[in-house]
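F.,

This is the one I mentioned.
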């Protein structure tokens, strides 16, 4: 039985021919390719290319023409040099930014849904850059691409909410990470509750926090903005395993 892999979302289909439509992302049979080997059988020398905007990782001889997650071009992909070396003085001297990309890929990330509001309109996006910066006062930081609609909403309202995802909520990543809120209502058909600050919170999340941006602590870092915010509310909803970026990559 042949295996067909969706080139957009990684879905595997078994059959003599690819499906008429990918059940995950909706693309047609032209976006499927024969899966020649399982992930465990792939050679360790296979090239991996990482999107510098959203951290999507592509395997192949060349980077994709367009990132299937955030839409940027091949010029914003970097090659991950995965060859492991013994740490010697010579290895340290030879190291540079090209080898640092693979090192940074070992940093563990979670996956979250960051949502905001503007003029009574709501939107949300998948984000892997959410972290606590201080405990007294209680503050967190998020980093958003300036091209994203959620970035526009946070800049306008100064508030946002973060819904933490469980290990099985990969569908939320596809819904909030694969499309733009300018083209579709991401919350259509999704169960959510508006928080105290008006931002939507997924009802089936593991936990959530609401936050108010500190205007004097908003940092322009080029393609992205780093928002530092005071946490105003939050609760744990379920005590379960959190969804990490590495876990999501192994499942997609």
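My design for it:
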């Amino acid at each position: 039985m042949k295996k067909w892999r969706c080139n957009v979302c990684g879905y595997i289909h078994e059959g003599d021919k690819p499906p008429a439509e990918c059940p995950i992302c909706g693309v047609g049979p032209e976006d499927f390719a024969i899966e020649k080997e399982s992930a465990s059988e792939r050679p360790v020398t296979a090239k991996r290319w990482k999107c510098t905007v959203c951290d999507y990782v592509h395997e192949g001889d060349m980077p994709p023409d367009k990132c299937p997650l955030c839409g940027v071009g091949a010029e914003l992909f970097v090659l991950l040099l995965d060859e492991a070396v013994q740490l010697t003085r010579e290895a340290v001297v030879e190291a540079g930014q090209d080898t640092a990309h693979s090192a940074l890929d070992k940093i563990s990330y979670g996956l979250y849904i960051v949502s905001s509001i503007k003029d009574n309109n709501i939107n949300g996006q998948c984000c892997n850059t959410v972290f606590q910066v201080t405990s007294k006062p209680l503050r967190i930081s998020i980093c958003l691409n300036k091209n994203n609609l959620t970035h526009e909403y946070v800049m306008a309202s100064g508030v946002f909410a973060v819904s933490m995802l469980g290990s099985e909520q990969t569908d939320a990543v596809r819904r909030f990470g694969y499309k733009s809120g300018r083209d579709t209502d991401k919350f259509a058909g999704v169960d959510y509750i508006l928080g105290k600050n008006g931002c939507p919170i997924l009802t089936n999340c593991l936990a959530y926090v609401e936050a108010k941006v500190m205007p004097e602590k908003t940092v322009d870092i080029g393609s992205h903005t780093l928002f530092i915010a005071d946490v105003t509310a939050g609760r744990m909803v379920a005590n379960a395993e959190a969804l990490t970026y590495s876990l999501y990559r192994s499942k997609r």
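The helical segments are 89-94, 97-104, 149-157, 170-177, 245-251.

Talk soon.
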